[in-house]
Each structure stands twice: as structure tokens, then as C-alpha cells.
Hints:
Layout: H1 3-6, H2 9-30, H3 35-62, H4 67-70
Helix pairs in contact: 2-3
Amino acid sequence: MNLKKSLFLLPNAITLASIFCGFDAIRIASDARSDDDFFRAALLLIFAMIFDTLDGRVARATKTQSAFGLQ
């Protein structure tokens, strides 16, 4: 398997991690019963921001930009 052909999966996986963290933060915050739930939701949003920053940098570093990552 050619490494260059499969390298585009890395930034897309990071983008998906960012999306899942954001959706999970919304899910947790919408059904929050304590301050602990809001803390976990805020922590997930911070992770989503980190993943969002990383995916662009990884895509530029590996020269593997896709339409999915641009959105």
C-alpha cells in the first residue's frame, strides 16, 4: 500500500475527531444535571478547538488537502 495515497486519511480523521467532540459537547450540555457536566462539555469544546487547529496544520504539512477538510 502506497503511503502517499493513505496519508490523506490523517487530516480527515482529525477533522472527524473535532466534529465528534463538538457534537458530544452539545449532547452533554443539553442534558446537564450538574456543574460537572458543563465542565466536561467545555473540555470537549477545547479539544475540538485543538483538533480543528491541528487538522489544517497536518493537511498543509502532508500536502493532503481535501474538500472535506476545507469545509
